[in-house]
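Hi there,

I know you've been waiting on this one. I reran it after we fixed the sequence typo, so this is the corrected version. Both the input and the resulting structure follow.
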Amino acid sequence: MADIVGLIGSALFIAAFAYANLAKQFDKLWFNLANLVGAVLLLASLWVHFNLAAFVLEVAWAGIALLGIIAAVRARRSGS
Protein backbone atom coordinates (compact mmCIF):
# COMPACT_ATOMS: atom_id res chain seq x y z
CA MET A 1 0.00 0.00 0.00
CA ALA A 2 2.85 2.41 0.80
CA ASP A 3 4.27 1.87 -2.68
CA ILE A 4 0.92 2.70 -4.28
CA VAL A 5 0.63 5.89 -2.23
CA GLY A 6 4.18 6.85 -3.20
CA LEU A 7 3.51 6.14 -6.87
CA ILE A 8 0.42 8.37 -6.78
CA GLY A 9 2.57 11.13 -5.24
CA SER A 10 5.17 10.65 -7.97
CA ALA A 11 2.46 10.78 -10.63
CA LEU A 12 1.25 14.10 -9.21
CA PHE A 13 4.80 15.51 -9.42
CA ILE A 14 5.12 14.37 -13.02
CA ALA A 15 1.70 15.75 -13.94
CA ALA A 16 2.50 19.10 -12.30
CA PHE A 17 5.83 19.29 -14.12
CA ALA A 18 4.17 18.48 -17.45
CA TYR A 19 1.47 21.06 -16.73
CA ALA A 20 4.09 23.72 -15.93
CA ASN A 21 5.81 23.08 -19.23
CA LEU A 22 2.78 22.63 -21.48
CA ALA A 23 0.02 24.89 -20.12
CA LYS A 24 -0.88 27.99 -22.10
CA GLN A 25 -2.02 29.68 -18.89
CA PHE A 26 -0.17 28.75 -15.73
CA ASP A 27 -2.09 28.53 -12.45
CA LYS A 28 0.39 28.69 -9.56
CA LEU A 29 -2.21 27.58 -7.04
CA TRP A 30 -3.05 24.31 -8.79
CA PHE A 31 0.61 23.65 -9.59
CA ASN A 32 1.67 24.08 -5.96
CA LEU A 33 -1.32 22.13 -4.63
CA ALA A 34 -0.38 19.17 -6.83
CA ASN A 35 3.22 19.41 -5.61
CA LEU A 36 2.17 19.65 -1.96
CA VAL A 37 -0.17 16.66 -2.18
CA GLY A 38 2.50 14.72 -4.08
CA ALA A 39 5.07 15.48 -1.38
CA VAL A 40 2.67 14.51 1.41
CA LEU A 41 1.87 11.21 -0.31
CA LEU A 42 5.55 10.45 -0.78
CA LEU A 43 6.21 11.33 2.86
CA ALA A 44 3.46 8.89 3.83
CA SER A 45 5.14 6.15 1.80
CA LEU A 46 8.48 7.04 3.43
CA TRP A 47 6.87 6.42 6.81
CA VAL A 48 6.91 2.73 5.86
CA HIS A 49 10.07 2.60 3.71
CA PHE A 50 12.24 5.32 5.26
CA ASN A 51 15.04 6.93 3.30
CA LEU A 52 16.65 10.01 4.86
CA ALA A 53 17.65 11.70 1.60
CA ALA A 54 14.18 11.28 0.13
CA PHE A 55 12.59 12.45 3.38
CA VAL A 56 14.64 15.67 3.41
CA LEU A 57 13.82 16.28 -0.25
CA GLU A 58 10.07 15.79 0.29
CA VAL A 59 9.97 18.03 3.37
CA ALA A 60 11.74 20.77 1.39
CA TRP A 61 9.45 20.19 -1.61
CA ALA A 62 6.35 20.43 0.58
CA GLY A 63 7.64 23.60 2.26
CA ILE A 64 8.32 25.30 -1.05
CA ALA A 65 4.91 24.23 -2.38
CA LEU A 66 3.24 25.59 0.76
CA LEU A 67 4.99 28.94 0.29
CA GLY A 68 3.85 28.92 -3.35
CA ILE A 69 0.25 28.25 -2.29
CA ILE A 70 0.35 31.14 0.16
CA ALA A 71 1.78 33.47 -2.50
CA ALA A 72 -0.81 32.35 -5.07
CA VAL A 73 -3.71 32.85 -2.66
CA ARG A 74 -2.44 36.31 -1.69
CA ALA A 75 -2.05 37.24 -5.36
CA ARG A 76 -5.62 36.13 -6.10
CA ARG A 77 -6.97 38.10 -3.16
CA SER A 78 -5.15 41.26 -4.25
CA GLY A 79 -6.46 40.78 -7.79
CA SER A 80 -3.17 40.34 -9.60
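Quick highlight: The first helix runs from residue 2 to 22.

Best,
R. S.
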